[in-house]
């Protein structure tokens, strides 16, 4: 609601400011409850994902929307590479780098302050860069936005009764109730949430299954092997999202790649149980390829869902629409690790099932 009323830019700036303040305070926490409170306030005030998705869809022309949304979603791949590196190298610097940091210094008394400070500095740099960002909320007459907003207006016209005012120049903000009646938006959000549940459960199960013993029909890989597979797939997905997918969406549209990715993802997961019959280099090569393909299919579906959500509503509704989407997605993602863990535990205890081995049923349930 805030982003739709006051603009995307103020919402983004407030979110970045909350990272600067509360992330720094988290690094200076002296008690457990101080850490909990600062992280809670950070999560409460940092609602950047919804507005940034709306901003990406508005600042780009229709033909570049896939690239814009890909940049947003690929930030996760970048974070998976940079984030652990910052934490791993900079945490407890007084013990790791005694020649640079003494135990009596602030970094010795607060061993996790340095990585938090670096993250806050990066957020501050992003905040300074935001000064030059144009506000997109009221860019009604910009030719770059006409195609996108016209598409959104056509969809919303079906959901507003008695032909009441639905013009892009109107200052009235549509109610949340009208969004809930928007079938295209609700369909896109439903697909997004269900797939987020699937993808999060897959990531939970994949790591556990890959390192589990052969007697449980796992792969007996080391944590280093799994980390390498995830790093390779993360880098590959980053390249795919920034280079290949925008061209794919430009020439094939959103729906066809979405459908192909969903079907191919099901077929790919069906082959996973048979990987336990492989060993050595052959196993490592194939598991890296399978992980890369699975994450590429996931990126295709995620980006398509995000674009469909933004084109299903007019500009004044995009902030609320993305807020609803992110909230519901977070709920599904919160449930996924527990559900995936329970399913994996059951599969480990039922290796010899009545009809299929436990690992086959495990990936069959993921495909459901």
UniProtKB/TrEMBL annotation:
It holds the Pfam family MFS_1. Keywords: Membrane, Transmembrane, Transmembrane helix, Transport. Residues 1-368 form the Major facilitator superfamily (MFS) profile domain. The keyword rRNA-binding does not apply. PROSITE patterns: MFS (PS50850). GO terms for molecular function: transmembrane transporter activity. It is a multi-pass membrane protein. Its main location: membrane. The chain crosses the membrane at residues 12-30, 36-55, 67-90, 110-134, 185-209, 229-248, 260-279, 285-308, 320-347. One of its GO terms (cellular component) is membrane. It is found in: Membrane. InterPro entries: MFS, MFS_dom, MFS_trans_sf. It comes from the Eukaryota. This is Major facilitator superfamily (MFS) profile domain-containing protein. It comes from Aegilops tauschii subsp. strangulata (Goatgrass).
């Amino acid at each position: 609601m805030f982003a739709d009323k006051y603009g995307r830019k103020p919402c983004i700036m407030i979110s970045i400011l909350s990272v600067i303040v509360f992330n720094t305070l988290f690094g200076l926490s002296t008690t457990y409850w101080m850490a909990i409170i600062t992280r809670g306030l950070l999560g409460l005030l940092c609602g950047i994902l919804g507005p940034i998705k709306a901003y990406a869809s508005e600042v780009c022309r229709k033909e570049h929307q896939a690239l814009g949304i890909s940049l947003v979603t690929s930030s996760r791949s970048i974070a998976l590479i940079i984030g652990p590196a910052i934490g791993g190298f900079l945490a407890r610097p007084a013990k790791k780098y005694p020649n640079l940091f003494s135990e009596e210094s602030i970094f010795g008394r607060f061993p996790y302050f340095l990585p938090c400070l670096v993250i806050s500095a990066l957020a501050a740099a992003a905040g300074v860069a935001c000064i030059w960002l144009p506000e997109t909320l009221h860019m009604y007459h910009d030719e770059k936005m006409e195609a996108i907003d016209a598409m959104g207006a056509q969809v919303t016209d079906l959901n507003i009764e008695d032909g009441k005012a639905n013009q892009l120049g109107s200052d009235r903000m549509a109610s949340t109730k009208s969004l809930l009646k928007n079938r295209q938006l609700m369909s896109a959000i439903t697909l997004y949430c269900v797939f987020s549940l699937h993808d999060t459960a897959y990531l939970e199960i994949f790591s556990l299954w890959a390192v589990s013993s052969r007697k449980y029909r796992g792969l007996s890989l080391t944590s280093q092997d799994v980390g390498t597979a995830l790093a390779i797939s993360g880098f590959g997905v980053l390249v795919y999202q920034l280079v290949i997918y925008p061209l794919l969406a430009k020439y094939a549209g959103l729906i066809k790649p979405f459908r192909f990715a969903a079907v191919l993802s099901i077929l790919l997961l069906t082959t996973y149980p048979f990987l336990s019959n492989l060993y050595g280099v052959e196993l490592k090569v194939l598991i890296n390829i399978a992980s890369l393909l699975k994450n590429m299919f996931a990126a295709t579906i995620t980006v398509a869902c995000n674009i469909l959500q933004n084109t299903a509503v007019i500009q004044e509704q995009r902030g609320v629409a993305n807020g609803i989407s992110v909230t519901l997605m977070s709920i599904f993602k919160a449930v996924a690790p527990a559900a995936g863990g329970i399913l994996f535990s059951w599969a480990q205890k039922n290796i010899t099932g009545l009809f299929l081995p436990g690992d086959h049923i495990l990936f069959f349930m993921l495909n459901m």
